[in-house]
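hiii so my PI (J.) wants the whole complex modelled not just the main chain, which honestly fair. so below is everything: two entries, each one labled with what it is. i double checked the lines twice but i was tired so who knows lol
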Amino acid sequence: MNPTSFNDKSYEILVREYHRRALAYALSLIPSEDDARDLVQEAFVIAYRNLDEFDQTRDFGSWLRGIVRMKYFELIRRRKRQPVSVEDLEALDAFHAGWDQAAIERNASALDALQHCLGKLQNSARALVDGYYFEKQRGQAIAARLGITEEAVWKRMERIRQVLLTCVNNYLAESSL
Amino acid sequence: MNQQIPEPEEVRHRPLAIDGLLRELARTKASSGDAEGFVQSVMEQIRTNSTARESFGDEFAEASSPNSTEAQFHWGWAAAMAACFLVFFGIAMQSLRTGPMAVVADASGEVWVRDASMAAPVRVHSGMRLFSRAEIFTVGSQSGVSIRWQDGSVVNLPGGSRMVLSTERGQKRMELLQGVCEARFQCQSEGKPALLGGPYVNAEIVAAYKWLNETPSHIQLAVMQGQVRLNQVLDASQEMQDDRPSQRPNDKERI
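here's the output for the full assembly
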């Protein structure tokens, strides 16, 4: 859905539809959930205020991500932190643009795809993902639990992310068949 | 994406698309009711923002938008009911007084405010609106608050400061009771200079000001435009009691 009328009710539908994707985007940029929520919340408010300027031929998700990105850079400047590289940002945007496309054209959700792919992971890989992301364990604790080094945890995690990324994209591509 | 592992956990926040998805999945699993809470929070902020914009214009509305939403997300039903009561109570109280005179542009550390409508001081957060006769104080050396008036003038209070802010027929009045204050004023309306005062303060005027009025127990500065630094002199009362005003720090530095 793209914004066609600018009343509160229709905007609420937009927020409902786009907020999880926007949060996923923000959480890729910044690790803190609170910060990510703040960024996305502010982005929605700014987007609402500037809906008149929104080009309806464009994708709302992409426009919203642009605002999240802008607020992210503001936050990073304020905290005097190093921002993510341009290359990383471009790659991130490219993935999200693809996922948006899948959502618009095929009603396929990247989050649903990820859920599906998590179910296909081997037990040991699933335990690692669960420990880090869902149980919020630190690398050291996971390493101790699995009896491996912390470095090995990160290496495995990296491989798992790549596997999941491929799986999600394949799943979304297949959903069009 | 080109990802490099291993990395220290604390600094590992590369924009991995899949990382963001995983975090979002984990976040929503951890707080199943959060999705609706988030949507309602956004819509509430939009409505609040629209109200502020109607009163003050876009810039002030933006400044008044709260930054932190942490407290809005993990409340149970009981807390929600209490919040509803507080909101309605707050709205009722606000309708009984004049509109907000200023907004907290930024607050860090422990900052509190109290005004006539509050039974006890409440914690200050960014975006909080301040009403006339608000007494704001910062606790500890790491705290600080930046207050933006409706016209864009800014007052900064570092840690350990206390100030009462009020308006009277459009004239800003600030009383520094403790600590230090730095301020930057936009051009004030003719005949309504911003008044900065307090007992035993050392005033450093960095730009234009109108006049300085001294009494044995008080100093008041009327500022039309520019920057001012006020420093409350802790031991000045003793000096004044000793009737040795010449030992007070120089409060007549003028540019």
